[in-house]
Hints:
Blueprint: H1 3-19, H2 25-49, E1 50-51, E2 59-60, E3 62-70, E4 76-85, H3 102-110, H4 113-118, H5 142-151, H6 156-163
Antiparallel strand pairs: 1-2, 3-4
Amino acid sequence: MLQQTWTSRCLMKFYAVVATSPASWESHKIAERIEQRILNSNPVMEAFGNACTLRNNNSSRFGKFIQLQLNRAQQMTGAAVQTYLLEKTRVACQASSERNFHIFYQICKGASEDERLQWHLPEGAAFSWLPNPERSLEEDCFEVTREAMLHLGIDTPTQNNIFKVRRKATPLKFGRDDGQPFA
Length: 183
């Protein structure tokens, strides 16, 4: 578990204990449920926002702001997680020994044969935006990401739509089929 994730978890647990009265079992359960949903978001956020860099195999390329929501009695009633991508250029360009975001490798390595067909990913295809695909990392676990997405309410059809590779539009050609200009 990342140090940031561990720190967030400790702070949420501390606040959940402090903010819930000993007599309120219901508020304690709500706080635990909120904490679990935030923690379930981590594999998804790491897959879509972390990459292998020169210094770290699981380097976070995004920022995360967690806002715990409280009622008037200072009991935790909800949370909002805001993320922002710090390094959008990584999608198109990486250093020679780095990799793109983990999710791209997870899809290529973890998709079944049927999924590959559905998502337009031919077996053994090479993509210019996926350098160093032969390198395997612990973070390449696609099933963990998919399971976390299900826990967050992202159903399988929606996941399939997310993972589908969009085909590049074919440019319109002007002129005749034989290459000659119109007369």
